[in-house]
Write a structure and sequence with these properties.
Layout: H1 11-16, H2 19-27, E1 40-42, E2 48-52, E3 55-59, E4 76-80, E5 84-87, H3 93-100, H4 129-143, E6 147-148, H5 152-160, H6 183-186, E7 216-222, E8 242-245, E9 261-264, E10 273-274, E11 278-280
Parallel strand pairs: 7-10
Antiparallel strand pairs: 1-2, 2-5, 3-4, 5-11, 6-11, 7-8, 8-9
């Protein structure tokens, strides 16, 4: 790193120094002189993506906390070494159709499946892990960029970024209705047993919507016991189950915390399970 000599205060000297590169490295962004990632990106399939800075994330829930679950233990630190883009919303039916030209939320007889409504702004549902991965692969080909499902660590880092509360909005469960769809504020009768349009509630600090509730979201890899690996991947791929994060419209607020983990067999489909994407920055 080139540090300017003492007394060198010129603007050009500062920007030629390594200080700017140091700060870009801390944030996980490209070094000075390279292209800088925009805070928001819109792709050709209609996905809006928000920049998630690099950093460390405390995975899990502290031992002895009131809401702690066994699968959230032990609490441990994972380092996200590189910034990335994440979908501002769960992938919608409109975005899915644009890429896949299929309608998994409809039956083979073209009738609507349970627990969903049809519309471009509703989240895609009734998709397997393999189908969510295929969507990412096809989108990668279309955009000439790497799209994939987030790791658990990336998901939790993006969800709780900039805070330390049980939820991204803090520790007050009473505020949950402003930030997500849960059983308490979405299920009133048999006709309300459905998901909701994306981005109808307040976003988190990074501009990501519905990180709590609405749809449980597939993450990459298998469900494994904590701790995860140093880069936030499953410590073992032996489990038969995939990983879901975020809770859904049918669970309680307490079951939709930042650290909540759920599992589902990869070839199973649910009306309450969808996903959002990660887009990697160019290397």
């Amino acid at each position: 790193m080139n540090i300017p000599p003492k007394g060198s205060r010129s603007k050009s000297g500062f920007f030629r120094s390594g200080w700017v590169s140091l700060w870009f490295w801390v944030l996980g962004l490209p070094a000075f002189g390279q292209s800088v990632a925009a805070p928001q990106l819109q792709d050709s399939a209609g996905l809006t993506l928000r920049l998630v800075p690099a950093g460390q994330v405390q995975m899990g829930t502290p031992s002895g906390a009131p809401l702690v679950q066994p699968e959230e233990q032990p609490r441990h630190t994972v380092t996200i070494e590189t910034a990335f883009y994440m979908g501002a919303t769960e992938v919608t039916q409109g975005q899915w159709s644009a890429v896949m030209q299929t309608t998994p939320w409809l039956t083979p007889w073209n009738s609507q499946r349970l627990y969903v409504r049809q519309g471009a702004d509703y989240p895609v549902a009734w998709v397997t892990y393999a189908e969510a991965t295929e969507f990412c692969q096809k989108l990668s080909e279309l955009e000439q960029a790497v799209y994939r499902l987030p790791t658990e660590a990336e998901w939790e880092h993006a969800c709780g970024y900039g805070g330390s509360g049980v939820w991204s909005f803090g520790d007050d469960a009473a505020a949950a209705a402003e930030h997500g769809w849960f059983r308490e504020n979405s299920v009133t009768d048999m006709y309300s047993l459905v998901h909701r349009r994306v981005a109808q509630k307040a976003a988190n600090r990074l501009g990501l919507y519905d990180m709590h509730g609405n749809m449980s979201e597939w993450c990459v890899g298998r469900f494994s016991d904590y701790p995860l690996t140093a880069d936030g991947r499953a410590s073992s791929e032996d489990s038969a189950y995939g990983v879901l994060r975020g809770g859904c419209w049918y669970v309680t607020v307490r079951q939709g915390r930042t650290a909540t983990r759920d599992r589902l067999l990869p070839d199973q489909i649910l009306g309450s399970a969808g996903f959002r994407v990660v887009r990697e920055l160019p290397r």
